[in-house]
From TrEMBL:
InterPro entries: NAD(P)-bd_dom_sf, SDR_fam, SDR_oxidoreductase
Protein name in the entry: Uncharacterized protein
Keywords on record: Oxidoreductase
Family: Belongs to the short-chain dehydrogenases/reductases (SDR) family.
Superkingdom, taxonomy of origin: Eukaryota
Native organism: Sphaerobolus stellatus (strain SS14)
Gene Ontology MF annotations: oxidoreductase activity
Lineage: Eukaryota, Fungi, Dikarya, Basidiomycota, Agaricomycotina
Length: 291
């Protein structure tokens, strides 16, 4: 059995739920962190607590992070891998999106992820100096295909994920010099068994009705395309969890782990079969697909 410990944020559903269950099955000590313990799944609560800690952790609330870290240290003494998974997707026309929703999207997906790197916070994972001290292996951040290519009505979500991609890539060079591994797992093409799309639609309903009227035809066509995309999804949360496990255990310095069907060819549309496609060709193919 492994003596390693993994800390996973956003562990109440979807990828965040499948990941702690998988690592627990593989014999790891697991910290499943979520914003509210009321959302804890029976898949977690039914497991033996000798290797599992379910803890409250709001990634936008520093005292909440500190409390989760303290509970982790008391139970397991260290963390080897941290999985930054907490986040949500806001789907809708940017012009109709209230300022508070813009801030919520960016704060949750970007600032919340950065809070996991704040040097002022206690060990094991929120201080990079303590990552070294605890002989931690590193950090895995869950990104998205939306951080590689943008889709219509996803401007804010893509903005947050592009930021995470750029930040994590730059940080990976720095932390490699300190023997701290930094990796990105990038689901693309959609994930089944997740409430991301439902949440997106719920959030997008809280926008300016008058502006939405102007975009009514465009929204209708775009949502019809999204519906076809959702119906074609074959990649599960468990598939992503297995990729996260690979990233944590393969012993390589590989940085990006893509997981998904890419059935409509978004990655190929952007890069080409050999990465030779121009940006103009990529934008033209995306516009054609959603026309």
């Amino acid at each position: 059995m492994s003596s390693k410990t993994i800390f996973i944020t956003g562990a109440s559903s979807g990828i965040g739920l499948a990941t702690p269950v998988l690592f627990y099955t593989e014999g790891w000590n697991v910290v499943a962190a979520m914003r509210s313990l009321d959302k804890a799944s029976t898949e977690l609560t039914s497991l033996d607590t000798s290797r599992l800690l379910i803890t409250e952790c709001d990634v936008l609330n520093l005292p909440s992070i500190q409390a989760a870290v303290a509970a982790t240290m008391e139970r397991f003494g260290k963390v080897n891998w941290v999985v930054n998974n907490a986040g949500f997707a806001l789907l809708g026309v940017f012009e109709a999106t209230p300022r508070e929703k813009v801030l919520e999207q960016i704060n949750t997906n970007v600032i919340g992820e950065l809070n996991g790197r704040d040097k002022s916070l206690p060990p094991p994972f929120t201080s990079l100096s303590n990552l070294r001290k605890n002989s931690a292996v590193g950090i895995i951040t869950i990104s998205s295909g939306a951080g590689i290519y943008s889709l219509p009505m996803g401007s804010l979500y893509s903005s947050s994920k592009y930021t995470v991609e750029g930040f994590t890539e730059a940080l990976s060079y720095e932390l490699a010099s300190q023997n701290i591994s930094t990796k990105l797992v990038i689901p693309h093409g959609g994930i089944s068994q997740t409430s991301l799309m439902q949440l997106s639609m719920q959030e997008s309903s809280q926008v300016d009705a008058e502006v939405n009227k102007l975009y009514k035809e465009y929204i209708g066509k775009t949502m019809a395309t999204f519906t076809r995309m959702v119906n074609a999804i074959t990649t599960s949360s468990h598939d992503v969890a297995k990729t996260i496990y690979e990233a944590a255990t393969d012993g390589t310095d590989k940085f990006r782990y893509f997981i998904g069907d890419d059935y409509r060819g978004s990655l190929t549309a952007k890069y080409g079969e050999k990465g030779t496609k121009t940006d103009e060709e990529y934008i033209a193919s995306m516009r054609k697909y959603f026309d």
